[in-house]
Target: Choline transporter-like protein
Amino acid sequence: MGMSQSQKRCVSGPRVPHMRSGYFFFLFTVKAGFDNLQRQCVHLILDKFDLFLLLSTVILLCVVEIVIVLMLIFLRNRIRIAIALLKEGSRAIGYIMSTLFYPIVTFILIAICISYWAVTATFYTEFIVLFLFLSIQTFNTTNVTKLCPGAQCTFAFYGGESLYHKYIFIFQLANAFVFLWLVNFAIALGQCTLAGAFASYYWASRKPADIPLWPLFSSFGRAIRYHTGSLAFGALILAIVQLIRVILEYLDHKLKGTQNSFTRFLLCCLKCCFWCLERFLKFINRNAYIMIAIYGKNFCTSAKEAFFLLMRNVVRVAVLDKVTDFLLFLGKILVAGGVGVLAFFFFTQRIPVFAQEAPALNYYWVPLLTVIIGSYLVAHGFFSVYAMCVDTLFLCFCNIMLNYLQICVEYHLKNYLSFVYPPVENILLYAQRNYCSILIF
Model:
């Protein structure tokens, strides 16, 4: 039997949506399966990446550990010297306890320098404000407003044709240079004073009987009376380099908006070079001030002798600096962390004894961070005395070793260039007869 056209349409019509829904369900299933597979692949890649990162970290730590162990094995004699110097430095500070309070003097001197610079730098601004105030007062006392009812006194520009207005930038630059010079001189005075006090301890034959009564005040008097010019010259060299760095930072700030990549690259290289030069000069000046305090020579001679003396003992210098810096850093962290923990319990009112005195704070992180940073800076100031003590004793030790070698050479010459290494007792007896008493702790 044949079917009409409408019947065919009725029969075949509902099939089309059913086929389309099955097709879409198939696409959804395939897409869901593909997303699941893709998700699994991503997780697998991440797991492999995490495993690779973990293995790389373990391998790197193993390599670092092996390098540290090899350094400890091959540099054990140098490390022993560094430990002996640290012990002797602790003993020296124990005999001269007044050196721990000298950073307060340095802080006061630097505060005076900062106050002088701030007052001088703001003088020009105060001058402009005073000039405007007097101009407005003068305008109000005149009859200009009567003659010209719409007249007003407004600020147009500042400046002028006087010498002061023409070279105001040069004056501000000179003020910054004087500020840097004074700050570096205050630091140099402190370093030379501490070095002289610790050197008097080192060269004392019988400790503490032969140590001067007031070693710190005696060293401060010698530095002021005899070594002011040398300290000022060393501070001048360092201030010049720091001023050049300030100028480079100013130029970098002014040229930051330009698109000239070569100029920015050149400025970056110059800033890096002068930063390295400043660090080197600080290192040389520090050791030169120690030599000045010990032998009383001028700055150039002391810097030359200190440099060559350190180059003869470059491995000992590197080991001593790293060991000392690491131990002092641990001390600073210990002090700052201990004070931070106490401050946390105090501000949160968890200490029953001080619960009533503690202020009620809604947000105690700001005073807590302030206390931690302040305690770290104070610890840094006091631990710098310890670092200066170790550096002074190390230079004294290097001088003794150099004199010891010279005495050995002279002893061999006196004994017709004998190739048998002389006993230490004979060398010390020869040194005692021909030189001052040599001290090796």
Summary: Confidence is low (pLDDT under 50) at residues 5-32, 416-422, 427-441. The longest helix spans residues 15-74. The CA atoms of residues 309 and 398 lie 7 Å apart.
